[in-house]
From TrEMBL:
InterPro entries: K_chnl_volt-dep_bsu_KCNAB-rel, NAD(P)_OxRdtase_dom_sf, NADP_OxRdtase_dom. Residues 16-314 form the NADP-dependent oxidoreductase domain. Gene3D superfamilies: NADP-dependent oxidoreductase domain. This is Aldo/keto reductase family protein. It comes from Intrasporangium calvum. CDD domains: Aldo_ket_red_shaker-like (cd19074). Belongs to the shaker potassium channel beta subunit family. It comes from the Bacteria. Pfam families: Aldo_ket_red. Keywords: NADP, Oxidoreductase.
Length: 336
């Protein structure tokens, strides 16, 4: 396993993060979830990402149980706040001081820990003054309930404003968690350069584009049974943007590229995002321990420049690069 510094901080995280979005307490049974976490630990993964909204808080419970008994100092546990949780009342959402302060306490209780290593704003809250949000985060850091602060899917300008306030308030905003893959590169033109300037790393999700970059979705054929595209609990909604015939045909063309690199297509996809120097870690999910064992082999892989260029050539114009999509896909108002 490769370990990298997170932003302009002294904190190291594993290059592969184990995440439990759409899996724990949802797609997989709890005993299998524990097996996946054990496989992650055995592979050298020390960084675990979750959120209070995953399975409406149940995913945090599963992760807390799975990590019970592990040496806390050897782990980096990340969670998030923003989306509605619990009974989803008027204040059970957003980044108000009230919701943040109540949510961190709930997350710590469910995760069975005294602190999280990185507490992340799961989205930008257009209805709460940013200074209120950042003051709440500053207080949580001073209380020792979080060591660092991160954000998720913020625009370059929002990250810049957040970093400015964090420095004034005396804490470190060290990371952004965006979607990033060979097919979805919207952070490259604005978010990455701004983050590099400010000392913020990316912890990227969906490096395999919801499974599309594994090659298992074949153009002209039905989607495989049990795949993310058949998940009615939310997975199908996220993967459908990539299930166009032109995208799937291009993805099939990556098979010989992966073979040339001595990797599976999934390993190639994860290794590809890790070539970006601003990416500290790539989040993988798993419904079977074997998936963890396969994807972790992408850590430490160096892809030759000519192979990276070949990926661009194969995928061509199906790659999404518009930086405006970060803002367009963000909630314009709180979701209740």
């Amino acid at each position: 396993m490769d370990y990298r510094y997170l932003g302009n901080s002294g904190l190291k995280v594993s290059a592969i993060t184990y995440g439990n979005w759409l899996t724990h307490a949802s797609q997989v049974e709890n005993d299998v979830a524990v097996q996946c976490v054990r496989a992650a630990l055995d592979a050298g993964i020390s960084t675990f990402d979750t959120a209070d909204v995953y399975a409406n808080t149940a995913a945090e419970v599963v992760l807390g149980e799975a990590l019970k008994g592990e040496r806390r100092e050897g782990l980096e546990i990340l969670t998030k706040v923003y989306w509605p949780t619990g009974p989803k009342g008027k204040n059970d959402t957003g980044l108000s001081r009230k919701h943040i302060m109540e949510s961190i306490n709930g997350s710590l209780r469910r995760l069975q820990t005294d602190y999280v290593d990185v507490y992340q704003a799961h989205r930008y809250d257009t209805e709460t003054p940013l200074v209120e949000t950042m003051q709440a985060f500053a207080d949580i850091v001073r209380q020792g309930k979080a060591l660092y602060i991160g954000v998720s899917e913020w625009t370059a300008e929002q990250i810049r404003e957040g970093v400015k306030l964090s420095r004034e308030l005396g804490f470190q905003l060290v990371s952004n968690q965006p979607q990033y893959s060979m097919l979805w590169r919207v952070i490259e033109d604005e978010v990455v350069p701004t983050s590099e300037e400010l000392g913020v790393s990316q912890i990227v999700f969906s490096p395999v584009a919801q499974g599309v970059l594994t090659g298992k979705y074949v153009p002209g054929e039905p989607v495989p049974e049990g795949s993310r595209a058949t998940d009615e609990k939310g997975g199908a909604d996220f993967v459908k943007r990539f299930l166009r015939e032109d995208v799937l045909r291009r993805v099939q063309g990556l098979a010989p590229v992966a073979a040339e690199a001595g990797l599976s297509m999934a390993q190639l996809a994860v290794a590809w995002v890790l070539q970006n120097p601003n990416v500290a870690s790539a989040i993988i999910g798993a419904s079977r321990p074997e998936q963890v064992e396969e994807n972790v082999r992408a850590a430490g892989v160096s892809l030759a420049p000519e192979l990276m260029a070949l990926v661009d050539e194969v995928l061509g114009d199906v790659v999404e690069r518009d930086p405006e999509l970060t803002q367009l896909n963000a909630p314009q108002a709180r979701v209740v």
